[in-house]
Amino acid sequence: MTTSRKRRPLPASRRNDLLEALRRDDVLRISDLAETLGVAEVTLRRDVVQLAKAGLVRRVHGGVALPEEEVAEPAEETAGQRIGMLVPSAEYYYPTVAEAAKVAAGELGIDVVLRTSSYDAEDELPLLERLVEQGAGALIVTPRMDAPTTQRTVDWLAGTELPVVLLERTATAGPYRTVLESVVTDHALGAEMAVNHLMLLGHRRIGVVLAEHSPTSPHVRRGWVDALGGKAAKVDALVPDARSPDSARALDAVLDSVAATGTTALLVHADNEAMALVQRCEMRGLAVPGDLSVVAYDDQVAHLCTPALTAVRPPLEAIGRAAVRLVADRLADPERPAHRVVINPSLQIRQSTSRPA
């Protein structure tokens, strides 16, 4: 006689850990969640099936998410509104932000018109003016902060009567330093998290390698300096874009400094530069993480590297949603004080970090 096998209930501790991770990040890849919880992917997939049947999570392509909340009818203040959104890139970092913003706006009955400039844009004001001419009743903007026209753009944003939210940027305008509303990632904290992880592994000489011209690099460096607390660090380098013909030479110079100073770990912004560094290590016979531990900053493609890179992940979906929420709140209450929202990143521990040799 055969007996049917009942699936044993998911251990409460693992279920709670899984749900807590989702509450922090909303959506997670199965591979990342498996690493975070220390569970095999095949086991975790079975767990997700059980939790989905119980209505506690929902399965999405390649991952898992919290259940969708019942969406209320859009408020009168937001229904039919249009947000103009201007970001520097549609290829890296910002597509996830924009997609989350569009979903959050749709729940409020708001349309989002997305436009891109570039990190080298000389003047973004014509793009912003065009968005307003096309009916945008609010703006979410990631302006370039180092262009000759930056202050003129910021002053224009501060002077418009429309709700304006800066995304991953902060700014003030005028003699009284009027604050523009903003949503940013605490990149300095993310760098501190990376350094603290490396120090807990036993590393004491931890360098930093930063992408030239990236607006995120100064914040990452500040967090790195704060986390070291005055301890000796000899490798502090800026490198060109990984696609630049000068990239290999700059990364070799970094590795020369690593060897000369006894540095055992590096924090590298961004992913492409971190992956290029790992490749240079391989060509020079350096093992990652055996000879050098590497933490990437951004986690857009870090998991695709071999070895998979430990990385700091900015909360891309969360900042997109928060920006829309600020717009909606401003539409509902035009007299509310300006809000500046800071959201924490997370550390994804993978195979590129270990105790120093």
Features:
single chain; 357 residues; Arc Repressor Mutant, subunit A; Rossmann fold; six-stranded mixed beta sheet; 17 strands; 39% helix; globular; disordered N terminus
Helix-strand pattern, N to C? HEHHEEEHEHEHEEEEHEHEHEHEEHEE
Strand arrangement across the biggest beta sheet: 5-4-6-7-10-16
Shape type: globular
Question: N-to-C terminal Cα separation, in Å?
Answer: 58 Å
Taking Cα atoms only, what radius of gyration do you get, to the nearest Å? 23 Å
- Give me the secondary-structure category: alpha/beta
What's the number of domains? 3
Helix content: 25-40%
Provide mean pLDDT, rounded: 89
CATH topology name of the largest domain: Rossmann fold
Report on the architecture of this protein.
With 357 residues, the protein is of the alpha/beta class. 39% of the residues lie in helices and 19% in strands. The chain contains eleven helices and 17 strands. It has a six-stranded parallel sheet with strand order 5-4-6-7-10-16, sandwiched between helices. Strands 12-11-13-14-15-17 form a six-stranded mixed sheet, sandwiched between helices. The chain has a three-stranded antiparallel sheet with strand order 1-3-2. Strand 4, helix 4 and strand 5 (111-116) form a beta-alpha-beta unit. The longest helix has 17 residues, at 316-332. The model is unreliable at 1-9 (pLDDT under 50).
